[in-house]
Amino acid sequence: EAGVAQSPRYKIIEKRQSVAFWCNPISGHATLYWYQQILGQGPKLLIQFQNNGVVDDSQLPKDRFSAERLKGVDSTLKIQPAKLEDSAVYLCASSKTETTNEKLFFGSGTQLSVL
Amino acid sequence: SQKIEQNSEALNIQEGKTATLTCNYTNYSPAYLQWYRQDPGRGPVFLLLIRENEKEKRKERLKVTFDTTLKQSLFHITASQPADSATYLCALRNAGNMLTFGGGTRLMVKP
User: Fold this and answer.
1) Residue A101 sits at the chain B interface (C-beta within 8 Å)
2) Using one digit for the tens of pLDDT, what is the confidence trace for A68-113?
3) Which label site among A31, A71, B26, B63 has the fewest CB atoms less than 10 Å from its CB?
4) Residue B43 — pLDDT band, cuts 50, 70, 90?
5) Which residues 19-78 on chain B approach chain A with CB closer than 8 angstroms?
C-alpha cells in the first residue's frame, strides 16, 4: 500500500514570507497528524484531525499557523508569516483511527529553512 | 507537568552487543507505550507497542519492557548490527489521547 505522501521535500524562505505544506495520508486512514520536529528533538504535535474535524490544536501557534483537511483526506499546513524559529521538519502522519493503541505512519517530512 | 525523557546523549556500542535505551515519563498514566525508529531525513517508523499489563514484549531481536511503577520503559536490541544505527523514540498518549514523543536517543553501532 502507498505510504503517507508529503510535498515539497524541502523549502527555503525568508522570514515574514508564507509557506504551505501538503499531505496525502494512507487511503482509508481517518486520523491525520501534523508534527513539528526541530533538529535534535522529538516530534511535537501541532494538530490532529479525525476525518475533517479538528481533535486537538492546542499546540498550534494560531496567530501564524493554520491547517485544514477538506473532505477528510488531504491536508495542508500553512505558516504566515514565517519566523526564524519555524525552521524545522514538518511531519505528517496518519492512523486508521484515533484509538489509544493505534500506530502512526509517517511521511518523510518537509524540511523548512527560514532565513 | 508531563514529561517524557530519553537519554539525549548518543549511545555508542560495538556490533554484536546488546543496546539498551531508556524512556522515563512523569505525570502520565499510559495504557500503552510505543517505540519508533527514525533514520536521518526520514519520518519515524513504528516498531513495537506494549500494554500497561504486559511486562515484556519481543519482536525478533527487539525487546521492550514496561514498568508502570517505575514509570519507565526499556528498549533492548540484541546482537546489534551497524544497520540498527538510528534514533529511537518512545511515545505515549496523554490524557487528551494525543501521541507525545520523547526527545529520542541516537544509537551508533560500530563494526
Assistant:
1) yes
2) 998 889 999 999 999 999 999 999 999 998 787 889 999 999 999 9
3) A71
4) very high
5) 31-32, 34, 36, 41-46, 49, 51
Question: φ and ψ at B70, to 5 degrees?
Answer: -80, -15
* Separation of alpha carbons B70 and B26, rounded Å: 10
Give the Cα separation of A20 and A6 in Å (integer): 11
Contact B53, B66 (CB under 8 A): no
Burial of A39 (0-12, 13-18, 19+ CB in 10 A): exposed
Cell (9 digits) for B11? 549511545
- Helix segments in chain B, DSSP class H: none
DSSP secondary structure letter of residue A104? P
Tracing cell 527514525 back to the chain, one arrives at B38
8 Å CB contact of A104 and B32: no
R_g over Cα of chain A: 13
